[in-house]
Amino acid sequence: MNKKIILNSLIFLSFIALSFAYFVEFVLGHEPCNLCKIERVPYIGSIVIISFLIFTNMWEKILLSIILLLFVFGAVTSVYHVGIEQGVFSESLLCELGLNTNIQNPDDLLKSLEKTPISCKDVTFKIFGLSLATFNAFLSIVISYILLRLIAKNE
Question: Which residues of 81-95 are buried (b: 16+ CB within 10 A; e: fewer)?
Fold first, then answer.
């Protein structure tokens, strides 16, 4: 398959994945946990890096390797998240952090302390009985494999 088609497809797929995640969050009202937010990073990174790569055509192998590392990180994070949801792993400190950086006065601090963070083990949205973390794990593994093949083909 043509490299340009693969990269354009990856941008499109990343855009669709992010759009769906934000749709579930803002339109359907399912607040994401901290791991869910972290799992969005590879998609955002791939849109930015591939856009740069398409327009400049510089440092192709390095940039593709960075995107590959982002999706491997995303796959590991998603598999870990699924493990937490299934009870294989216990929640880490990251799941319990309720970071609010918009504290400007004591009242904001009190409101921040009263709000409990979303648990990483609670699945609030499913498709066909599978959590979004499960879909993300599968998608990240497939994208990692495609990127690995693309990088190996360029050598």
Answer: bbbbbeeebeeeeeb
